[in-house]
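Dear U.,

Please find below the material for section 3 of the report. The protein was modelled together with flavin mononucleotide; I have listed the sequence and SMILES used, followed by the predicted complex structure.
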Amino acid sequence: MSQHLSARREFLRFLAASPLIAAPQEPSAKDALSVLDFEPLAHKALPPAHWGYMSTGVDDDLTVRMNREAMGHYQIRARRLAGVEKPDLSFELFGKVWNSPIYFSAVSAQRAFHPDAELGTARAAKAKNVVQMLSTVSSASVEEVGKALGEPPWYQLYMPTTWPETEKLVRRVEAAGCGVLAWTIDSLGGRNAETAARLARTDTRVCRTCHPSGPDFNQGTSRNRAKPMFEGLSGEMNPAGADWSYVDRLKKMTKMKLLLKGIDTAEDAVLAREHGVDGVVVSNHGGRATETGRGTIDILPEVVDAVGKQIPVFVDGGFRRGTDVFKALSLGARAVGIGRPYVWGLASFGQEGVERVIDILRAELIMTMRNCGVRSAAKFTRDSVLRNGARL
Ligand SMILES: Cc1cc2nc3c(=O)[nH]c(=O)nc-3n(C[C@H](O)[C@H](O)[C@H](O)COP(=O)(O)O)c2cc1C
C-alpha cells in the first residue's frame, strides 16, 4: 500500500473516532469533551497547506511527538481529604492577576486558520482573562489586538537582523503599551518544516494567489514584509549570529520585562538570569525548531532547579490535559503555554472554540487539584509528582 493511502486511511480512522465529527447534527464547540477533540475538526476545516503549517514539526516530527510522550514520564502523587473544594487558579505576574496559569502562546499568521485571526483569540482571552502572547508575524497588528483584548498583549519578538530595525519594532511595541517582550531564540538558525512543505504539495490551490512571494514554512523573510508588524521594515529577521551581548543590548533598549523563549538547558537559564532577563520559557517551539528529541516537560526540572528561585520559569509544548498542566506546575513552572490547542479551537469555531479550549483545560485542572489536594496555583510543590515512579 502506498504511503499516501495508508496516511489517508489513518486520517479517516482519526476522524471517525472523533465524537464531534461522528455527531449526527452539526457539531458545536460545547460538544467537545477534550481539547483533543478540536484537532480533527481543525484538520477538516483547513486546506492541506494551512493544516500542514499548523501541525508540522521539523525533520521527522519526533520532537512534536516527544512533547506529548514525555508527559507519561511523570505521575501524580495524589493526596486525599485535603478539603480542597474551590482551588484558586489565579496567578500573579509582573503586577497583574490572571484567571489561570495557562496562557495562549504566540502562534503566527492566524488568518490562515480563521478570518477573525488573532482578534478572535484576543476576544476569547479577554472573556476568560487569559494572557495572550502575540507573534511578530501575526495577521493583525499589535494595536488592533490591544483593542480587541482590552489591554496590550505580551509581545513575542522575532528580532530583525539589524539594530535600527529592532529598535523601530521595539518602540512600536512599547507605544502600543506592551509590558512584556518575549524574544524567541530557538530558531535563529532556520528550520526544516518538512511536513508543512510536503502537505503544501498536496494542496490544489495556488499559493501565490494569497502569498505573492510564494509559501514560506521556514520563517524566511520575503513574506514578512507584507505582515502588519513589518511596516517600514525590511522583513529580514532572526540574526543567526546573535549571542548573549544581544540580550544586554535589548535589555538596555527597553523597560519592558524581557523573557527568553526557547531556553532548553540549565546552563542557558543561568546565563539568562546573569544577563538580567526577567523570565524564561522552556520551549522547543512546539517541536518546530530543531529535532532535539527532548520533550519540554523533561527539560523543565533542570531549568527550574537552575533559576526557578530567582525568576519565573514558563513552559510550553504538548500540553493537552489539565493533568499535564498539573505536572508542570508541580515541577515548578509558574504558568503553562498552549499553542496548537487554541488554534484548533479557532479554526473550528472562531472565538467560541478558543474559549471552550480554555474552559476545558481549566475544568480539568480544577478537578485534578481538588482530587489531589492542591489548594492554589501558588501552592504546587514537587511532592505532587513523580518521575518514572520516583520522587524528584
Ligand atoms: C502554527 C504555529 C505557529 C507558531 N508561531 C510562533 C511564532 O510566531 N513565534 C513563536 O515564538 N512561537 C510560535 N509557535 C510556537 C508556540 O508559541 C509554542 O511554543 C508551541 O506551539 C507550543 O506547543 P504546542 O503547540 O504543542 O502547544 C508557533 C506554533 C504553531 C503551532
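For the text of the report, you could mention the following: The first helix runs from residue 3 to 16.

Regards,
Y.
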